[in-house]
Amino acid sequence: MSGGFDLWMLGFSYDGSRRVDYVTSIENIRAKAVAGENPATWKLGQSFSHSINASASDPNPAMTKPTVTSREDTIEQWKTKPQWVLTYTSPDTGRVDPGNAQRVAGQVTLAMNITSPTAVPWVDSNMAYSNVRFDYTGRAAGKHKGTVYVEARVELTMSLKDPEVDQSARHILDAQQLPERTFPSWPGKSVPGSSEPLHRLINRDKQDANRDVAIATCNVVWGDYEGSSLECDEYPFSSTYEGAAKNDNRYSARLIDGRDNRKGGERIQKVYEENRILDNDPFYVKIVP
């Protein structure tokens, strides 16, 4: 047997539901008969399985698989119905538990095969896979429960031309690209967030500690700014583990317009919630013209 086909698969995660959907399709099947072979007898199969990483999950993790997880049809059957849908869910207690975010770290794997009555089957047991996380963290992550594909890159983007956050954006860009010109200043300084990710910090006391160190730097460099419209902006953000209190001096503190500073904070929070970024989850920051 010889030929080829086009395979595509889309995954959908949800903010507000412990559910993921997969839409998969085999299209444009090109079958070329060889001596003694009849393409009408060939079958293409797809089979889905799942596993749970217990060490990356909270107690008693569980996933519920679809009723149908495999399909093996002839070429003509695939041409008639190229798509099918699978839904995986995870049970929950129905409430937020401060001591248990009900995280389930799961992996869904696609295996494929092509069979013929007169040929050796072709099998790929790991054709594709995706890592998904279910959680019931509460309002800090957006809606109280939801799912994400954990390998998707999360990026906060700000523009230098956005009048609401242009000063915040300039500060971040300087910290990322010209760190030695930011305060505190020292030879060889580097600031994470561009190629090296930041990690969300939810603990309010630790956020305040980051903010206090940044404000102290602003006071040393610029003096007393109380009563002005300026506020001390810190990068990496106080809501990250890389914040100013980490004691590695890989941060920048700068006075900027207070409204700009607050709008920047709103943008950060929006990214956290829309992407269900939990405590210690990585994300990146990108500044565009």
List keywords for this structure.
alpha+beta, 37% strand, 5-stranded antiparallel sheet, 3-stranded antiparallel sheet, 289 residues, 13 strands
Please explain how this structure is put together.
By secondary structure, this protein is of the alpha+beta class. Helix content is 19%, strand content 37%. It has helices spanning 75-80, 166-177, 204-222, 258-274; strands at 2-13, 19-32, 43-52, 70-74, 83-89, 104-116, 119-135, 146-149, 155-159, 198-199, 230-235, 252-257, 282-288. The strands form four sheets. Strands 4-3-6-7-8 form a five-stranded antiparallel β-sheet. It has a three-stranded antiparallel β-sheet with strand order 1-2-5. A three-stranded mixed β-sheet has the order 9-13-10, with helices on one face. The longest helix is centred in the last third of the chain and has 19 residues, at 204-222. The radius of gyration is 25 Å and the shape is elongated. The mean pLDDT is 95.
